[in-house]
Design a protein that fits this description.
Layout: E1 6-10, H1 14-25, E2 33-36, H2 40-50, E3 53-55, H3 58-62, E4 65-70, H4 74-91, E5 94-97, H5 104-110, E6 116-120, E7 130-135, H6 142-152, E8 156-160, H7 166-175, H8 177-194, H9 199-216, H10 223-230, H11 236-246, H12 249-272
Parallel strand pairs: 1-2, 1-4, 2-3, 4-5, 5-6, 7-8
Antiparallel strand pairs: 6-7
Helix pairs in contact: 7-12, 8-9
Length: about 290
């Protein structure tokens, strides 16, 4: 882990909490972490659970920070950055944004000249098992890339993407992805119940099957190799997979991921070109 100075969080929601917990596990001290959070109850909970410094004043939160993690809702980010523009341009910390749909150019327009990395984590970060994709312009110094990667690694694995537009695909794959697996497990349990299995047993078996399948992926085998290892010729798994193929499962998954990607692109455009107040344009959502 590279040697970072103080870290500031703007926003103390679930993803910020996951990263704070991860940074503390990595050996960062609570005194090195400061959180700007407007809700008094949330500030009290952060201070009580993690011992970090909390404040309602974002200027105070970012004072002396080398890394400022932008963890506010996407629709609030512009206003937050505008209020801090002069301070950020003077101190030039690295901004690390986890605000979905807010492009690099959007932040650059508000805070020109302040270095930025975008990251797309997923919900598994809450249990330290997340996967985050990061994007930065090619000219961002290696030291700043390492700074961002170290912070996101606090909640799981990290991977860099070459194009900013790749983050829309990442959002559809790993950001929204847990919901796809939960839906599959949910439907598996429902099918078992319909066949006569006791509901609580069906739910438990579906949950633990999903959990165990994830654990198996820690091995060196590819996804296809893992699937093949479970599939005996002429067996029960082969029968189930044959029905999935016949009913268009592969095409359905491809269409779903494509739809999520396209929606991410649309939300990013809406953020970049907001409608006038009262026009009713929906704000970008995380996933």
């Amino acid at each position: 882990m590279s040697k970072m100075g103080n870290v500031a969080f703007l926003g103390g929601g679930n993803m910020a909490r996951a990263l704070i917990q991860g940074l503390l596990r990595q050996g960062r001290t609570a005194a090195q972490i400061r959180v700007g959070e407007p809700v008094s109850e949330a500030r009290a909970a952060l201070q009580r659970e993690f011992g970090v410094q909390v404040t309602a004043d974002n200027h105070e939160a970012i004072a002396g920070a080398e890394l400022v993690l932008l963890a506010v809702k996407p629709q609030m980010l512009r206003a937050v950055l505008e209020s801090l523009r002069a301070t950020l341009q003077h101190s030039r910390p690295l901004l690390l944004s986890i605000a979905a749909g807010v492009r690099h150019a959007d932040v650059e327009r508000v805070c020109p000249g302040v270095p930025l990395v975008r990251a797309m984590p997923n919900r598994a970060a809450l249990v330290g098992a997340g996967i985050s994709a990061l994007y930065a312009p090619p000219d961002l110094p290696t030291t700043l890339r390492a700074l961002a990667a170290d912070a996101m690694a606090a909640a799981g694995h990290c991977v860099w993407v070459q194009r900013e537009s790749d983050l829309d695909i990442v959002t559809a794959l790993s950001g929204s992805g847990p919901a796809y697996f939960f839906l599959l497990a949910e439907q598996m349990a429902a099918a078992a119940r319909a066949l006569g299995l006791e509901p609580a047993t069906a739910e438990l078996l579906a949950r633990e099957t999903l959990r165990g399948a994830g654990a198996l992926l820690a091995g060196p085998e590819t996804l296809a190799e893992q699937r093949t290892a479970v599939t005996s010729r002429g067996g029960t798994t082969a029968a189930a997979l044959a029905v999935m193929e016949e009913r268009g499962f592969n095409a359905l998954v491809a269409a779903a991921v494509t739809a999520a990607t396209r929606r991410g692109e649309q939300l990013a455009v809406q953020f970049s070109n907001p409608e006038p107040a009262g026009a009713g344009a929906p704000a970008p959502a995380n996933h």
